[in-house]
Amino acid sequence: MSIQVSPQFLLALMILAGVATLQFYKGRKLNLAMMQHYLRSIEEVVKPKDKNYIWVGGYVGFRAYYKVNETNIENFDYTLTLLPRQSILYFPVSKLINRHDKIYFVVHPHSKIKREAHLIQKGYYRMKPKIENEELMQKEIVEVDGVKYEALFEKRRDVELLREFLQGFSRIKDVKHISLTPKTNVLYVFMKPDLETIEKDTKHIVRFVNERLRESPFDS
Asked: Is 99 left (phi over 0), alpha (psi -120 to 50) or beta?
């Protein structure tokens, strides 16, 4: 039994294949350029003494591990994940599911974080991340420059500290979740990165750890 294929269908397949191939090279080049820009911008600010990179899914990102050991920063790690611009078929699906490029900073200070606190942008997560001992923490909604966040905390002073930290970012609405976690002794920042402001925002994170996390509120 033979299957007849119309010339129009074959032409459509050839056009789709050509467009997909063109998009692959164009999207790959764009993602690689973006990764290089983020890497250079962050590295110039952090100035690591040692570094290690791990690719994440080919052309959609990487993990960076920086050994700093200077001022109040021991380690400075981050994960960058980009939308799959190289895939004409999967890009719209990823755009719908993941919405935007993402960067996750995990900073390990030398100073000890004694209490846990979170600011989570209200309505951002489809499924809110699991937070250990959440039922024991106080909760309230805070607003920062018109953007609402759910605050989870042990002491109010830590919420005010995170609010102050949040106000220093270039675009507050791009910051989705910030937290202080004593169990792992880290400052966590999850945000939508921007090519134009990544250097400024990285400087802000470094300054906050070196200056504000060294002060007395975390000693009591």
From this structure: left
